[in-house]
Each structure stands twice: as C-alpha cells, then as structure tokens.
Amino acid sequence: MSTEKYIVLRTRETSAPTRGDMGTRGAGLSTFGQPKPEIKLEEADLSKRERNDLRRDPRTRAIAMPMPLRLIAPVSSSEVPPDPAPAPETWGVKAIRAPESPYDGSGVTVAVLDTGIDPNHPAFANAKLVQQNFTTEDPNDLHGHGTHCAGTIFGADVNGTRIGIARNVERALIGKVLGEGGGTSGTLAKAIQWALQEGAHVISMSLGIDFPGYVDWLVQQNGMDVNPATSMALEEYRANVNLFTELARFVQAYGAFGQGAIIVAASGNESKRPQYEISVAPPAAGTGIIAVGALGQSDNGLIVANFSNNQADVSAPGVDIQSAEANNTGLVSMSGTSMATPHVAGVAALWAQRQLQMTGRVENQSLMSQLVASGTYAPLAQGVEEDDVGTGIVQVPLS
C-alpha cells in the first residue's frame, strides 16, 4: 500500500481543570471552567485510507503535505562601510519612532524563525539566545538572513548606530528552520509550536512557501505535465494556508491561559510594480497572522516598495535597511519584506512590554489590536492604497 508524508494537526483530549487552577498564570495552566487547549502536531506517512479516516475525525484541524519553504530573499544587499560619523539610528528605527518610546523590550521573549543567528556578533552580546536547530546543518546562521532580521528586532548598537528596536530583550528564541537545502512547512509548524511552548510573546517569520518550486518538483520527480501539477500544488497550497490558520487559532486560544503571543510574517517580494502585484503568500496568508508590507523612502514621503506583495495588514521600513552582518562585526544593508517584518516584531515587543507592565500579562488579541491600530498614514506619500500598506506604518507606544 503506497503512502505519502503529511502534516497532521489534531486537538488532544484534556482533563477538566480544577478549581485550584483559577486565577493562575503561565504556559501549561488552565483557567477555571475551561479545558486547556492542546494540540498534537506530527508528520506521518499515510495511506489514502488513513488520510480519509483522519479527515473524518472531528479532532483533526488540518492535514497537509509538507511544502517547500524558501526565504523571502532580500532583493538587494550591500556591506555598510565603517563611517567616522555614523548615523545615530537607522532610518527604519527612526521611522517607527523607537527613539521616542519609553519601552525597550524588557521582560519580553521574541522568537525569530529563520536561518539561525550568528551568536558571536556584538549586536547580541547582551541577549540570552535560546537556539533550536530544525535543520541537519550547522546550528548557526550560514546565510546571514536570520542574523539581519534578529538585529532589527533586538540588536544592540553597532559602531555607534542603533539598529535594534527592542534593545533590552533579554531572551530570544532562535529557531533555525531554513538551511542550505531549504525547509518545509512541516518544519515551520513544529518551530511555531516550540516557540509558543518556550514562552514567546512575539514570533517573527520572514519566509514563505515556494509554490513554483513545488510545481517544478511535481513535474520533475513525478513526470507530470505542468497543468495537473499546478492543480495538485494549488490543493496543497490551500491545505497549508489552512494549517497555518489553525496554528494561529491555537496560538490565540493558548493566550487565554496566561501566555499570549502573536505571529508576524513577510507578505512576500513577488510583485513587480507598476507592472503587476501579487497577493500575500503563506504563511502570512493564514488568518490570524499579521502580514507585513515593505516601505521605502522618497522625496514625497514613504512609498510602497516595488517588490512588496499586496493585502498586507500593516507595513514597515523594508528598503535599504542596515542591520547585523553574519560572520562579521559590522552591518549590511538589505531590502525586502523580510526586513520590514522584524520592524513590526520589534514594535510588537514594545507593545507587549507595555501590557506586561500595566496588567502583568500579555493578551494576544489586544496586543494584535494595538499593533494594527498603531499604523498611521501620516508619513506616507499621497496616493498609497490601503491594500498595499494595511493600516499604515506601525508605531511604537509613546506612553
């Protein structure tokens, strides 16, 4: 009997909570009168009959083939030479008004699911890095993408320039989900679960599903014509969007029991404006995940980057962004929605800190609402459309 590998997401049956659980906080605890939400996430080789049985099981929330992941790769990059008179902060840090905020990320845990990190870069000297390798290669960053993204979220100043938004984040979860050979949506799903269990308040993902690559794989490996291969890929694309939607719902449900978290993800760089625009790609396309568009500078205000996909929820600086360079001690400039996403994650960390100080906990629905509502059109050029920037450029809490 032939089998194929699938990702299966199911709810677990849990025992009823006791009255002693009432009013407690923390991951893994329950509130009185409600069972704690738990899921079982696994990859399994399934026959057609087993798949059909699982689909009929009411506990099954999602079932999907693992699809290939790829970086939301920078559209350009260049090393930043040392400057005897460096700028006090990057233009992105200034645009989201981080220098004006009284918050610095204290007490907040962020997760970066990417290509790993260069733990020896001076930008991360003061942060506690919890690394988890979901690949089969070296656990550190061999690409540079994850290091750059992490630097924007919580990196310390480098050569006199502020690159990080939440510079006092003391604990960062670094999930390496992409290696030289790429990764899969199954790996990413496991990493999201790991980050939540490790106490993440904010989960940042600058990656996406490689739909064209999956079609090519079906054509080359299975000898299929492109038309049926595209149809099959579309079905698995839909199933994977549902998988990440269900994972986001679980993250939201988990927040009711003391550990609130939100997920932000890059919308993608597939557009080529003004010729054409592409809609947001998974996992950012999943309901409950904040999709991030990229902005650049112009003489008339901030404009939508020509590569940025539409249907974004919010937007942030994503063109010529300076941040930490892997295997070096300096900075590198990159452009992409990958670079916009950590700006949003950093802003979210400051809003999370504000919640912690005011209420003692992070509530994910209100955190998501505060983050999205912080967006403003004020610095944007005239004519920018909501479909491209969502609520506008995100802003840090100022009080």
TrEMBL record:
<feature type="active site" description="Charge relay system">
    <location>
        <position position="338"/>
    </location>
</feature>
<dbReference type="InterPro" id="IPR000209">
    <property type="entry name" value="Peptidase_S8/S53_dom"/>
</dbReference>
<feature type="region of interest" description="Disordered">
    <location>
        <begin position="1"/>
        <end position="38"/>
    </location>
</feature>
<protein>
    <submittedName>
        <fullName>Peptidase S8 and S53 subtilisin kexin sedolisin</fullName>
    </submittedName>
</protein>
<keyword id="KW-0378">Hydrolase</keyword>
<feature type="active site" description="Charge relay system">
    <location>
        <position position="114"/>
    </location>
</feature>
<keyword id="KW-0720">Serine protease</keyword>
<feature type="active site" description="Charge relay system">
    <location>
        <position position="145"/>
    </location>
</feature>
<dbReference type="GO" id="GO:0004252">
    <property type="term" value="F:serine-type endopeptidase activity"/>
</dbReference>
<dbReference type="InterPro" id="IPR023827">
    <property type="entry name" value="Peptidase_S8_Asp-AS"/>
</dbReference>
<dbReference type="InterPro" id="IPR023828">
    <property type="entry name" value="Peptidase_S8_Ser-AS"/>
</dbReference>
<dbReference type="InterPro" id="IPR050131">
    <property type="entry name" value="Peptidase_S8_subtilisin-like"/>
</dbReference>
<comment type="similarity">
    <text>Belongs to the peptidase S8 family.</text>
</comment>
<dbReference type="InterPro" id="IPR036852">
    <property type="entry name" value="Peptidase_S8/S53_dom_sf"/>
</dbReference>
<dbReference type="GO" id="GO:0006508">
    <property type="term" value="P:proteolysis"/>
</dbReference>
<dbReference type="InterPro" id="IPR015500">
    <property type="entry name" value="Peptidase_S8_subtilisin-rel"/>
</dbReference>
<feature type="domain" description="Peptidase S8/S53">
    <location>
        <begin position="105"/>
        <end position="369"/>
    </location>
</feature>
<dbReference type="Pfam" id="PF00082">
    <property type="entry name" value="Peptidase_S8"/>
</dbReference>
<keyword id="KW-0645">Protease</keyword>
